[in-house]
Structure formats: structure tokens, C-alpha cells
Design a protein that fits this description.
By secondary structure, the protein is α+β, with helices and mostly antiparallel strands. It contains six helices and 18 strands. The structure holds uracil. Uracil binds near residues 104, 105, 108, 191 and 205.
Length: about 260
């Protein structure tokens, strides 16, 4: 059955109908190797080979889940128009169209999940779910007792007061300290801004846990697949239904 290209892309889970139109108009979509920019063009999805930026659109792409130990110097996006290294460069063998669950700054390292499961991503990032993230920050100067109390109770940032945090000083010599901080919000540069607000400069930042997952056994720059038990746990935290293995999965695309 012939359908408009943007509808095929939207049904395959590539993008919303509107964003699919933009992908087409911007020349990202090819049918049988020829770029199609006409929005009304119709095709039989079963009979042609549709790619988006060279990635094959598949009706039955499996969900995949990875835990990455992100090094500094990689940006947390799927593409960069300035040619900078992205976290996807660290998982070159993954053919599915994965993306990061939330973000880490270019100069932050540590635990980052990547998946093509939009429902799980949305659930884990939804403020209502209050998913914990733990960071270790090297800060200068070492925070005072008053600063630690402020971090714990919530500090006023330009986008509002932060929720209470768990804060623990791991080491300190007065001039510098290593501080572990657990938050459940996910605002932009939140940890750096929280420390700045109490007079401390963050010299290094590493995320050590996300949703109870840790970096154990995953060296810097490496990644591993999540286990089924971890996925069950994450879906519980995200407040979404468990996937039934026998059921068909949502659509997506994969590299070919
Ligand atoms: N908070 C920050 O300031 N940076 C990050 O990358 C993550 C949390």
C-alpha cells in the first residue's frame, strides 16, 4: 500500500509527522538510494528501501540499551554541526538509532545510558519519577559546613530553588575537596551551578550512578549492554509497563 513518506517515517517511529516532513525537506531521506525532498511523494514501505541519513528505516527494530562510561571531551548529542566528537562515536558498532538518556556536559565524565526506547527515556527523565543521579565533584575551595547545609537543603538558582540533595564530603584538605552529591532533578549544568551558588568552583565532575546503576566493570570510554534485570528495574523506576518479549516492538531504523 502506498503512503506518504512522512507518514511512513512517523509510523516507523523515526520522528513525529512534522519532524519527518522537515527531515524530508532538508534532504535527509532517500528512497532506493535517491534523495526525496518532495513532501507529497508516496511509496509502498514494504517494496522500497528507505533511509534517513543512511540509516535504514525498519518496521521492527528491537529496543537496545547501553551503559556508557563517558570520558570528558565528548558531547552528549547524536550529531554536531561543528564536527565535535559525540558520545555515539564511542559505540561505533551499534547499528540502531540510539540516543542519550539525558545529558552530561562535554567536560563531565561518567555514567550515561543510551537507547532507542523513547518511552523508557521519557519516563526516566520525567521530573515526577525523581530518578536519583550521584556525582563526585572535585571542588575548590572545600565547601564550608554552611555551604554543605545549603546544598543539602536546596540552593537558589536562576531557574528556581533546587530540591534537597544528599551531600557527603569524601576527602578534603581545606583548599580542595571531593564531594559526593545525589540529586534527582536534571537541570542544565545543575551540579556545577549548585556548587557555584555556594562559592565553590567545580574542577572535575563525574556521574557515578544513575537510577541505581553504577559504572562497575565499565572502564572509561567503554560500554556494556544492560541486563534484563536492570531493564525491569529501570521500567519500574520510570513508571512504565514491562515489555513482553513475545510482543512486537516499536519501529525504528538501523544502519545498513
Ligand atoms: N550537572 C552538571 O553540572 N553537569 C553535568 O554534566 C551533569 C550534572
Amino acid at each position: 500500500m502506498e503512503e506518504r513518506l512522512q507518514k511512513i517515517l512517523a509510523q516507523a517511529g523515526v520522528a513525529s509527522r512534522r519532524n519527518a516532513e522537515k527531515l524530508i525537506a532538508d534532504g535527509h531521506v532517500a528512497v532506493d538510494g535517491t534523495t526525496v525532498t518532495e513532501l507529497g511523494a508516496k511509496f509502498d514501505a514494504a517494496a522500497v528501501r528507505i533511509t534517513v541519513d543512511g540509516l535504514l528505516v525498519r518496521a521492527q527494530e528491537q529496543h537496545v540499551y547501553f551503559l556508557l562510561n563517558k570520558p570528558k571531551g565528548y558531547i552528549t548529542t547524536v550529531a554536531d554541526d561543528r564536527g565535535r566528537r559525540t558520545v555515539l562515536d564511542l559505540l561505533p558498532e551499534v547499528k540502531e538509532r540510539i540516543y542519550p538518556v539525558g545529558r552530561l556536559d562535554n567536560n563531565t565524565e561518567g555514567l550515561l545510558l543510551l537507547t532507542n526506547d523513547g518511552a523508557l527515556t521519557n519516563g526516566l527523565l520525567h521530573p515526577k519519577q525523581q530518578v536519583d543521579k550521584t556525582y563526585i565533584a572535585r571542588v575548590q575551595p572545600a565547601p564550608t559546613q554552611a555551604a554543605l547545609i545549603r546544598l543539602t537543603e536546596g540552593v537558589d538558582l536562576d531557574d528556581g530553588r533546587t530540591a534537597p540533595a544528599l551531600v557527603r564530603v569524601l576527602a578534603s584538605d581545606g583548599a580542595e575537596a571531593r564531594v559526593e552529591i545525589t540529586i534527582h532533578e536534571g537541570r542544565n549544568r545543575q551540579v556545577r551551578r549548585m556548587f557555584e551558588a555556594v562559592g565553590c568552583d567545580v574542577k572535575a565532575l563525574k556521574r557515578t550512578t544513575f537510577a541505581g546503576l553504577t559504572l562497575a566493570g565499565v572502564p572509561r570510554g567503554k560500554h556494556r549492554k544492560l541486563t534484563q534485570a536492570e531493564l525491569v528495574h529501570l521500567r519500574q523506576l520510570a513508571g512504565i509497563a514491562q515489555e513482553q518479549p513475545a510482543r512486537s516492538k516499536t519501529a525504528g531504523r538501523s544502519r545498513k
